[in-house]
Amino acid sequence: MSSKFLPVLMIGGSGVVGSQAAKIIRRLQPTLPLAVGGRDLGRAEAVAREVGNAVGVSVDLERPDLGLGDELRFSAVVIFLKDEKLSSMRYAQHHGIPYISLSSGTFEVGPEMAQYIHAPDKAPILLASHWLAGAAVFPILEFAKAYTAIDRIRIGVLLDEQDMGGPAALADYNRITGFAPAALTVKDGRFRWAGGEDSKARYVSVDGVELDAVAYSPFDVMALAARTNAANIRLDLAYSESASRRRREPFSTEIVIEMAGRGRDGQPLDHRHEIVQPEGQAPLTALGIALAVERMLGLEGGDAPAPGLYLPEVLIDPAYYVRRMKEFGASFTERSMIAA
Length: 340
Hints:
By secondary structure, the chain is of the alpha/beta class. It has 2 domains: 2-132 and 284-316, NAD(P)-binding Rossmann-like Domain (Rossmann fold), CATH 3.40.50; 134-280 and 320-336, 2-Layer Sandwich (Dihydrodipicolinate Reductase, domain 2), CATH 3.30.360. The protein contains 11 helices and 16 strands. It has helices spanning 16-28, 41-51, 87-95, 110-117, 137-143, 167-179, 220-228, 243-246, 281-296, 312-315, 318-327, and strands at residues 8-11, 34-38, 54-58, 76-79, 99-101, 124-127, 147-160, 183-187, 190-194, 200-204, 210-215, 232-240, 253-263, 268-277, 308-310, 331-336. Strand 4 (76-79), helix 3 (87-95) and strand 5 form a beta-alpha-beta unit. Helix 1 (16-28) crosses helix 9 (281-296) and helix 5 (137-143) packs across helix 11 (318-327). The longest helix is centred in the last third of the chain and has 16 residues, at 281-296. It is globular.
């Protein structure tokens, strides 16, 4: 039972995504204690009261002990913002507890990897900086079960202009789009960095409207290259108006996946999958982190992982992830791209 655990420390847990993640964890694991951490103790305590079986704590990323002293102990650390000093990761390693992060771009993963390499036996480290913490990569891996070979994976994601979320999400977006020299893609089996004109793309929304997009590189591309060996992989981001807002409804978030290759019968298989979360990006990101917490503590999908460096798709079953996405409101539509 999850009641045997110390609290999970959620740094940034009082923010837009963090607070939703706390609520989803509570729904999935009613007895798992939580520690909602943030700079504003009052906000953290308010979220903790709303979630239940939780406490609010003040966190200071400038201090090696995170400002928590020696008395508080936790079962895992989750951070919902960019920790530029890696204080939270070092804290988890020092205490030998799982660590989950979700705010790095592909081009800036080096410091976390180096920190792990210098202390490989201390703690399990999960790098979950995929699009919305896995909301694209897990469906793709589930769809991939229908293929014997995949030639192309094209991911289009739409982030509504009204759906950026809180300050941490905006800071991540500005940092990654502002400092990344180019976006990682796979073309003809080779890793390529798409910049300038090569980065420009068109995104076809779920209502057929075409929008400007640009190549973007969360961890999905490199993860899918390792897992599927697809010859061509690319993720494009459209930051624009969602189809639901064009219908004068609240914003939503969209993920469009186009996959081409050979099916189990040896025939060409070319499908377009459309995923829509009507409440926007935050619930999907929050769900991904909640499922990561479950897995890292051994509450779902097997025993807790040993110390090591992990990506979420190595640990979490795609079918389980997709089932949870549907339970929490995401809709899935599939269309064949092969002319009859």
